[in-house]
Amino acid sequence: MVYLHVTFHLEAQDVERFETFYAEEFYPVIQGHGFEAVGIFKTLVGAAGEFTEIWRFRDLQDYERKWKALMSDPEVQKIFETTGPMVKGESFKLTESVAFLDAP
């Protein structure tokens, strides 16, 4: 399994609007591209407005295929027009589970 971790920050005044928009508009599109969420989290103690998404893929090829399709979707580009100005300090990393533990 390969996991995509996406971490980003929002200004406090954007959190509620972002969560509503994400749930109603963006998450269904992401799911439509076959992305499987392990979890989408917001920080309770620490950096205010910090969110982390963790997505699971079968392997690197599965990730690459789905990511390319998502990023080339015109609906996603339209969504970014709304979410882009709200998102600050976005970072991405790909990880894989270690062999001695069962992956979630």
Descriptors:
4-stranded antiparallel β-sheet; Alpha-Beta Plaits; 104 residues; single chain; 33% strand; globular; 3 helices; alpha+beta
Tell me the name of the CATH class: Alpha Beta
Which fold does the CATH topology refer to?
Alpha-Beta Plaits
The count of helical stretches stands at: 3
Q: Which architecture name does CATH use?
A: 2-Layer Sandwich
**Looking across the biggest beta sheet, what order are the strands in?**
2-3-1-4
Report Rg: 14 Å
Strand content: 25-35%
Helix and strand pattern? EHEEHHE
Regions with little confidence, pLDDT below 50 for 5+ residues: none
Major beta-sheet overview: 4 strands, antiparallel
Query: Looking at the structure, what is the overall shape?
Result: globular
Number of strands: 4
Counting copies of identical and different chains, the oligomeric state is single chain
Distance between the termini: 9 Å
